[in-house]
Amino acid sequence: MGKIAFVFPGQGSQSVGMGQDLYTNHPAAKSYYDRANEALGFSLSDLIFEGPEDQLKITYHTQPALLTTSIACLEAFKAAGITPDYVAGHSLGEYSALVAAGVLGFEDAVRTVRARGEFMEQAVPGGLGAMAAVLGAERAALAELCSAITSGGSVVELANVNCPGQIVVSGSQEGVAAVVERCKEAGAKRAIPLEVSGPFHSSLMKPASERLAEVLASVEMSDAAVPVVANVTARPVTQPSDIRGLLVEQVYSPVLWEDTIAYLIGQGVDTFIELGSGTVLAGLIKKIDKTVKTVSIGSLEALEKYMQEVHNHANG
Fold it and tell me: What is the pLDDT of residues 139-155, one digit of tens each?
């Protein structure tokens, strides 16, 4: 029997209206949106379901919105009676994974990611940082190019190692522009500047990580009920003391998503269930290994379709 991992999406997967059908039709899922509203002191659910999109895209709104939607999807999915052997999340999604593993309470997680979003927004003045997706480059060659540009005085680093041929770089406006211009030196086909509000997962985020460390120090955490594979190390963690440190590092370190999925496949995981908005992670996972099964549960329709498949399978 193969193993199962639950995976949770990060920023960029959000969309206005996400999870609304679960909110309307699934009382247990609805309760998470209500709890998030109460924890934050404003109607996050109105913003999620009605927009406007430019408000939902603000980092400190996006993060609690995605986390709430992921946990609502997880709650609805519990009806399938499937438990994971591992959990993991992409960047912000790591917090959803920690809620799923019983490390963080839901309200604590919502308030923490709201603060994390604020700190990330404030770490670098607008217009000074940037990110770009580099397609077709080898990781080592791209890391070398970034290092050469950084030593020339313009910081740029690997931020998200997503899948073979897709790596996001992050850093100063000049550093990222230089990578976009010179990416072919690293064997890339092209590089696409991303619409983001800051240089996430780069060393320029250190000020945000220091502020986040203070918040995390006072948040209660329990041992993980299932191993959480951390972005920073692509290895499992279960102890709160390790988890706190890795969440602080995660703000300014690359998200090793490709390595995370490779590790999980190496542990015998052959089914990945993406819980939350969109299908970004399922797409990346298929690019890492097209033989594994991926399922994206982000809506009532997707959930019902999956339940029907399970039912049909059980009844031969």
Answer: 999 999 999 999 999 99
Alpha helices (H) in the chain, listed in sequence order: 20-25, 27-40, 44-50, 53-56, 59-77, 93-100, 106-123, 139-151, 173-182, 206-217, 240-250, 257-266, 280-288, 300-314
By residue count, the chain amounts to 316
Catalytic residues: 91, 201
Read off the tokens for 18.
């996400």
Give the pLDDT confidence of 77-123 residue by residue, as tens digits.
998 899 999 999 999 999 999 999 999 999 999 999 999 999 999 99
CB atoms within 10 A of CB 156: 31
Only one residue has tokens 């945000």, namely 208
The residue assigned the tokens 């940082």 is: 129
DSSP string, 90-128: STTHHHHHHHHTTSS-HHHHHHHHHHHHHHHHHHS-TTS
What residues does 89 pair with on adjacent strands?
Answer: 8
